[in-house]
UniProtKB/TrEMBL annotation:
The lineage of its organism: Bacteria, Pseudomonadati, Pseudomonadota, Betaproteobacteria, Burkholderiales. This is Protein gp37. It comes from the Bacteria. Pfam families: DUF5131 (PF07505).
Amino acid sequence: MSKNSLVKLAHHAFNPWWGYKKFPLTWKLDGLHWIESQTDPAGYWESHAQSRFLSDEHWNTPLPWNSTAEHRNQRERVLCAPTPDLFQDHDDLPGWRSRLLNLIEATPNLDWLLLTRHAYAIKRHLPQGYTLPRNAWLGVHVPDQHRADRYIPYLQAVPTAGVRFLYCEPLRQPIDIRRYLEPRRGVGRIDWVVCGGQSTNGAEPMHPEWAEYLQWQCEQAGVPFYFKQWGNWAPVEVVGIEAAGNRHIIEMTRCDGRPEDMVRVGKRVAGRVLFGHTWEQFPESRPL
């Protein structure tokens, strides 16, 4: 997940360090679903054995953001660690994670979006008995049903007074998250869902029904929904015949048997319109 793919969700972006584990997954087409053709590998640490930590000057960057937001009497969102992953296992990270938590607490006018692929490790890497502050928005990456059912319970179990969210990009198949959107005693509810298609090299089309189904589930549960992008492919009916031109088209089929032509036009042309609307719903901030 790149900085460019996420930054629209926030006013600022902040990397506390560089270095991350890569997960070289491969996918194959199975009917209407893109499915993972191998299990999660162990991954590997980029930048060899060491991550690259940044200067005190860099770490002080969010402080003026916080002051400006306070002066304007508004809250601003910070996308934190769009390149590294805060909760991956690496020996040199514990002290820097603690420094980041202290920074989040010291900037109460900023909402920090903390997104991870390592949901199972979140509690292990937080101080014992620690509750994330209200301005920490904690999210997990769930592109398919397998990861939704595997990772969302870990997210729900994390002690936090802030927002819990799902990042469903690139969306690979229809996902049923209804049970996670309903409030239940003793279980943290999901407060926000972000959805989008793939825009990297070799991107595959996202079936429109997959995004529509997520939006419907959120609407039924009263949970904010954010549609970030179609990605490199979009429905012909969204971009129009003229924009489609002679470009590459893939025909998909809706559940009722109707065809749905998807055309590769690039994410800028594909846009962000779903059901004739631009979905930019956010959860309410929970200031300290």
